[in-house]
Amino acid sequence: MGIEGALFDFSGTTFRLEEKESWFTGGGDGWTPDVHEAAEIMRRMTAPVGQSVAFDAEGQRAWDARDLDPALHRHAYLAVLRGSGVPEAAAERLYGRLVDPAEWAPYADTGAVLETLADRGIRVGIVSNIAFDIRPAFAARGWDRFVDVMALSYEIGAAKPDPAIFRHAIDRLGTDPARTLMIGDSDAADGGVRAVGGQFALVDPLPIAQRPRALTDALAAHGITVPG
């Protein structure tokens, strides 16, 4: 059977938050991490699963529910940054980058993939564990017209791999779960679509320059060719 609906993760799948040197310098606080420290901090800010620092009881509660509530998300990630040795002022600055959709850049084939699917009448959804509105990242590029459903965990009250978030997205797409493909960078989270009968394709959350066509290849493996 052909694919009639395609779901995509956001971070590490369609978009990526890539560090800029200016984020780690010029803050007036004297904090300038080396390249390895900066890379590890970015990994901790964007990893889809896993816990990188120890929390107190309040911090652990915030971490466990971080993608369901913006206030808890802020509490949890500021704790991660502080626990990673980031000074308070710098932590606030970096967290502001994390939750600013304008700071997120798309993978090279994201636009072409979304447009191809829309042109072929294949319904498209974004399913993300996230606590801020990512719609502006798509709207800024005119890609919002290709996306039929935005299933964001903090709006729905369920986070991947909870079947509820996939069921929500597929119900609104109006597609057959067996003919709906979820593409994401985490088998543990995004692979939860299998629990509702959907298909899953894994992509590697590599830096943008190192991953020019992973989405294109994932679709090709399911019989959908993206031009270019």
Automatic annotation (TrEMBL):
Q: Which UniProt keywords apply?
A: Hydrolase
Q: What is its EC number?
A: 3.1.3.-
Q: Can the keyword Disulfide bond be found in this entry's annotation?
A: no
GO molecular function terms attached to this record: hydrolase activity
Task: Give, as one word, the top-level EC class.
Answer: hydrolase
This protein's source sits in the domain of life called Bacteria
What this protein is called in its record is HAD family hydrolase
Organism the protein comes from? Nocardia thailandica
